[in-house]
Design goal:
The complex is a heterodimer of chains A (322) and B (299). Chain A has 16 helices and two strands. With 322 residues, chain A is mainly α. Chain A has a two-stranded antiparallel ribbon with strand order 1-2. The longest helix of chain A has 27 residues, at 207-233. Chain B is mainly α. The radius of gyration of chain B is 19 Å and the shape is globular. Chains A and B meet through α7, α13 and α15 of A and α4, α9 and α11 of B.
Chain lengths: 322, 299
């Protein structure tokens, strides 16, 4: 089955003016919105990237990680420490952040991918809490629970308008790279493993290595999201690595639609809009709304909002085994 | 007895108290995880609700010798009913969907319950004391321990004994243990599985409620008390062996004592104590995935 992209191809490519409208829409915010909303939009894009990276494991790998915040946090902390404590040039710090989260993901993934279902979730949860504790307590390097403030991007990228375009370009490039991964033969193998692990093993696929690779790629792109987030917020805190933070991409993917490539992006947009409106409307009852949505998603539309939007346009969705 | 050994023994006893609270929470979680194969992310929220229900019940009940225990048991029973309702209306519908929707469902429930606590009781902290006759200090030679801690330690072993009896000496226990090994076989033998699951879930939630009520005099009752206890209990369940009550007790004792003695060591070791718990759990999963006392059959 190919739940991804096709909808976009079939629905959009035929009408050439759609990309133009889209381009105008994503380029215009700095001229239309206040700084506050521009910042919010930037955070939304980064969340979208985080959710897309998480969904490589979740929607396409069938693995529910409860520790994705660890890689987001690693990326954010590496770039923050390098920018505030050393004279590292910005591009190098950015690369180091990606390398850092890739290495952490490689280490954590090596232990985690051999576990299935609940045990995988618990292992990722445990590793992410370990990293959280390390960051939260290691004052000398990470600033402990104070976090790190005053992370300023260098000149051409400073200012909210420049930050918006920078985040837009990098996260779009990263999202397209992820899309390419999912559409590649490697992505097909990953889906084959998700749909029937044993069958994939029987036809000679080294399941463990493929899943490890998915874990590493997923963690690396979460690191990109972290490296974008820290300069945009100009601060980081250990909270980024806490497991309750790791639940956010889970929510975005489940809500948006884990079996559609762009579903998590949709989920991230809905999540961000709700997050900035619900607390004012409903006595700060944000977790209550989140929980209710999560329960309703499981019961009533298990394939997310994307299912409602795009289902009819996807001709070749096969049966999925649980 | 010299100062050092007094210190060590009193740390040991305080670790024992902590272990018993862990045991009460983790045994319910382990039972549900083992027999129903449901990893209940809402377990910590039920524990928290146990403490809050107990607090509110004590505001209503007249102060008598039994009001504290009436509040604890009443809160736990009310929670067990709520748990039964949730299991039979919401959770049951996820069993056929697989593990991932199940986790999403219980996590969603945890968010809802925790936020309801915040909305109903506010972000404040509350405290309740143990009943007057347990409020004192019990001394033996140079050692002294709050009487309530002595009670908790004894009560923990009592619950262990009761659970062991339930699991190994009753018909229900036989069915539950069989269910830990093979749910398919149990239902093939004509056991009413939906009802069994409801009963097991209610027992698990009842234990969480008792744990919440009984630990209320030990800590400040506040929203947020569900978060860290939840993952610590996950670790204890895994270390002990899923669905195994003796293993859960062992793991609770080890973890409780490790936390108690870590405090004596220089910083940053006490701060990282939770980290050692996770390292221990990861190590157990890597070398002995069925836990200290679990069975190979289970995996």
């Amino acid at each position: 089955m190919t739940p991804t992209g096709r909808d976009l191809k079939g629905g959009y490519a035929g009408r050439f003016w759609w990309p133009l409208v889209g381009l105008l829409l994503i380029l215009s915010p700095p001229f239309l919105l206040t700084e506050f909303y521009l910042d919010l939009l930037g955070v939304m894009l980064i969340r979208g990237l985080l959710a897309l990276s998480f969904n490589l494991l979740y929607g396409f790998g069938g693995r529910l990680s409860f520790g994705h915040g660890a890689f987001l946090g690693t990326g954010a902390y590496v770039i923050s420490i390098l920018l505030t404590r050393t004279e590292t040039p910005f591009p190098l710090a950015f690369l180091a952040a990606i390398v850092g989260s890739t290495l952490v993901a490689a280490f954590v993934g090596y232990f985690c991918v051999r576990f299935l279902s609940f045990y995988f979730s618990i292992m990722t949860l445990a590793f992410s809490q370990l990293l959280f504790l390390l960051v939260d307590k290691w004052y000398a390097v990470t600033g402990g629970d104070d976090g790190i403030q005053r992370i300023f991007p260098p000149d051409p990228l400073s200012g909210i308008t420049a930050q918006y375009y920078y985040v837009l370009i990098v996260s779009s490039a990263a999202a397209l790279a992820l899309w390419w991964v999912v559409r590649s033969p490697y992505g097909s193998v990953l889906r084959a493993i998700r749909d029937n692990r044993r069958r994939a093993e029987f036809i000679g696929i080294d399941v463990g290595r493929y899943e490890w690779a998915a874990f590493v790629i997923s963690g690396a792109f979460a690191g990109v999201a972290g490296a974008l987030l820290a300069p945009l917020n100009q601060s980081v805190s250990p909270h980024l690595l806490h497991w309750t933070k790791s639940a956010e991409p889970v929510f975005m993917s489940a809500l948006g639609g884990p079996y559609f490539f762009w579903g998590p992006l949709l989920g991230a947009a809905i999540f961000s809009i709700l997050e900035s409106t619900i607390p004012d409307l409903l006595f700060e009852a944000w977790p209550l709304v989140l929980g209710t949505i999560l329960v309703s998603v499981v019961l009533f539309f298990p394939e997310g909002v994307a299912e409602i939007l795009w289902k009819s346009k996807d001709p070749d969705r096969g049966e999925r085994e649980p | 007895m010299d100062d050092l050994s007094t210190l060590l023994v009193s740390q040991f006893l305080s670790g024992l108290t902590r272990a018993m609270v862990y045991f009460l929470i983790a045994s319910g979680l382990s039972l549900v995880f083992g027999a129903m194969n449901v990893l209940n992310f809402a377990h910590g929220a039920f524990y928290m609700l146990g403490a809050f229900f107990c607090y509110s019940a004590l505001q209503w009940l007249p102060v008598t010798a039994v009001s504290f225990f009436a509040a604890v048991v009443g809160a736990a029973l009310a929670l067990a009913l709520l748990g039964g309702l949730i299991e039979s209306t919401l959770l049951r519908r996820t069993y056929a969907l697989g593990h991932v929707p199940q986790i999403l469902m219980t996590y969603g429930l945890a968010l809802i319950l925790a936020d309801l606590v915040r909305l109903i009781w506010g972000g404040r902290f509350y405290s309740i004391g143990p009943p007057a006759y347990l409020a004192g200090v019990t001394s033996a030679g140079p050692l002294s321990l709050p009487t309530y801690h002595v009670f908790l330690i004894l009560f923990g072993f009592f619950v262990y004994g009761t659970l062991w009896w339930l699991l190994y000496r009753t018909e229900l226990g036989r069915v539950i243990r069989a269910s830990v090994y093979s749910r398919e076989m149990v239902s093939a033998l004509g056991i009413d599985q939906p009802r069994l699951f409801t009963v097991v879930f209610m027992i698990g939630i009842f234990l969480a409620g008792i744990a919440g009520g009984l630990s209320a005099p030990l800590t400040a009752i506040g929203s947020g008390m569900d978060i860290s206890i939840l993952i610590e209990s996950f670790a204890i369940v895994i270390i002990g062996g899923v669905g195994n009550v003796t293993g859960t007790l062992l793991a609770s004792l080890i973890v409780g004592e490790v936390f108690a003695f870590a405090i004596l060591l220089p910083q940053p070791i006490p701060q990282m104590a939770q980290g050692f718990l996770f390292i221990f759990m990861i190590a157990i999963l890597v070398v002995r995935p069925y836990g200290l006392r679990g069975s190979m059959l289970r995996l």
